[in-house]
Amino acid sequence: MADKSGKGSSGRASLVNDAKFAETIRKELRFHKLYENYMLSPSVKKNLVITNKPTSAKLDGETIDPEYMNKCRYAQLAPREKYELPITSSQVYGWDTEPLVKLNDRRFHFPRVESSITKSHGQVRK
């Protein structure tokens, strides 16, 4: 039967485990040394390079290659500005974006007509 006092074999095992843990900590603390004074080695001090912040937009002493900048600008252009004709079949769709019929043609242009009633209604809504 189990001992109801709670000090049976499980209580003794926990005491043994605690004693082992305490002994391990004592052995580790004998060789533990806390270092509080940090310094750079002399070899690093000679060739020390301090970089800018990663989010900084300023470049110190560096010049940007103009040829590289021209290539970047060219890469950002729209395909119609780069090429005379479409290069791929998917560029054919939408290549000619100019309207075929002028918007001021009376057959297709229906401007909004205003009367005194619609003007007064528009002013009330504002």
Overview of the molecule:
It is elongated and about 100 Å long. It has six helices and no strands. Helices cover 45% and strands 0% of the residues. The mean pLDDT is 79. The chain is mostly helical and 126 residues long.
Low-confidence stretches: none
Overall pLDDT metric: 79
Q: What is the SS-derived class?
A: mainly alpha
The beta-strand count equals: 0
List keywords for this structure.
single chain, 126 residues, mainly alpha, 45% helix, elongated
Describe the protein's topology.
Layout: H1 9-31, H2 42-46, H3 66-76, H4 79-82, H5 89-92, H6 116-125
Short description:
The protein is mainly alpha-helical and 126 residues long.
